[in-house]
């Protein structure tokens, strides 16, 4: 064992469980594919045991999990939230640059999955392993905020899709947005009761991909048709100089939000060994082929409608009622599946700490536990979504408060901590530049997002029917 590997192992911190007792680490289950460490009998231990299934998914299934997040119904808002405040040059360069930076940061995280002879299946475990208990708790808090707000945004999105569908067939305004949000939250809860863990999505990832293609293709084609027949569009960036500063910073937060999950270690935990190589394959899949639908619908929407593009692109397009209804319902159904991905770390925590591992996931007492606990969690999400249904603001605040710190600041600093003896002075300077730069961006983006929420809150009342 060389000096660097010894140092990596010295960094190990065996965190106790919340009940104060140390427990023997759970060994990875045997698989047909084994990396070099496996062959030498040095297979890493898991940082803690878990009630969920891990180490069973091929890299392409994990790739589809990532693509499901990237091409969720959130893509229907990027024309309005990214392209409108940044314009053609800023928006295009921003999307491409954010993709490159996000790919790099996620690759760093993927390479830290096995550190100190342990496989870290949760983001907070990895941070606690490197820094200690306080940063463990801080990372968990940041991740919880990140995932809670993403899930809240998904419920808002699903509610908007339902309301848009209803408005196609009736103009009486009886089905208001808060009611649609309540229906969406209930549907997401029903889905959560039946899918015990992330790996169990399997065939649902295929449905998710199908739903994504339906609303993206329909939106793309209808936007193209509208753009061809429409008069000249206005592509100028709206707002006064002072307002543009805040909207530009908010759009930058939306850029990083578009590509990142904030839960890469949890997703990587489901992948088969060799975990780092397979995760890198999944990431390349996400940032190449998987990102093309996002680019297509974002650029086409902005080209067709210019600065008049709304935060939900299907509100702009014109076409047959049944086609638009199909797109909206596809967006609704895909959102239900995508929310489950981003809620899975919270589900895993609750199931592991408070659930019963006896009898299998569909034993009566385990199903009842999921109904009570997951139902309660999603009820809170739904209530927040109905009270503050400002989707674009949520995207900006989520990017500022959690996506920047988790994906960029912590990833670079953790890599510095673990690999510091292997990095040159130039490499160390590069990572420190990332840490300082993204910390500054996170603070600026948080201020801009809070300002936007305050403005929208003063314009719209609680439970607004937007």
Secondary structure layout:
Elements: H1 3-10, H2 36-39, E1 45-46, H3 59-70, H4 78-111, E2 114-115, E3 118-119, H5 123-131, H6 133-169, H7 177-194, H8 203-229, H9 241-259, H10 264-268, H11 275-287, H12 292-305, H13 321-354, H14 364-387, H15 391-419, H16 425-459
Parallel strand pairs: 1-3
Antiparallel strand pairs: 2-3
Helix pairs in contact: 3-8, 3-11, 4-9, 4-11, 4-12, 4-15, 5-6, 6-7, 6-13, 6-14, 6-15, 7-13, 7-14, 8-12, 8-13, 9-15, 9-16, 15-16
Envelope shape: globular
CATH fold-level name: Amino acid/polyamine transporter I
**Total count of strands:** 3
Topology pattern, helix = H, strand = E? HHEHHEEHHHHHHHHHHHH
Main CATH class: Mainly Alpha
Q: Judging by the overall fold, what is the CATH architecture?
A: Up-down Bundle
InterPro entries: AA_transpt_TM
Protein name: Amino acid transporter transmembrane domain-containing protein
Transmembrane segments: 59-79, 86-105, 135-157, 177-197, 203-224, 282-305, 325-350, 371-391, 397-418, 430-454
Domain Amino acid transporter transmembrane: 59-449
